[in-house]
Design brief:
This protein has about 130 residues and is mainly alpha-helical. It has one domain (about 5-130): ACP-like (Non-ribosomal Peptide Synthetase Peptidyl Carrier Protein, Chain A). The chain has five helices and two strands, in the order αααββαα. It has helices at about 5-20, 45-55, 65-70, 110-115, 120-130; strands at about 85, 105-110. The chain has a two-stranded antiparallel ribbon with strand order 1-2. This is Acyl carrier protein. Keywords: Phosphopantetheine, Phosphoprotein. InterPro entries: ACP-like_sf, PP-bd_ACP, Ppantetheine_attach_site. Pfam families: PP-binding.
Amino acid sequence: MSAPLAKTDIFNRVCIIIADCLASDVNDIQLDSYLFNDLGIDSLDFLDIVFGVEREFLIKFRKTPFEKFLRLDTLVDEKNQSQIPIERLDAIKKFLPALQLPPNEPSISVITLMSSLTTETLVLAIEDCCYTGS
């Protein structure tokens, strides 16, 4: 296994992938930029970015905790598919530094979850996939 990349190196490469996907300026992307709200990506852009990350870093998110963002059906409540029970977030909380969990609520909406994805989410997922053997 090669030496781990510095977080700033990963971030810079992720910014290039996002900027390329959105045809935007790489300097407009910050570590704490919300992917959907700040950068204006949609679900297809998200998949394009994820595939770009996999190509760039020679990784696959399949069978890693990050895959749950690509397979929301593994998270949602069976009775109310727009909600995710809080306990199902345990495996992915580490990728969500911006997530604000509501106190005393049993679940959050899928929209809340996806709205909390940041550029840092991708950086953390890459680190997890590359350097923890996930």
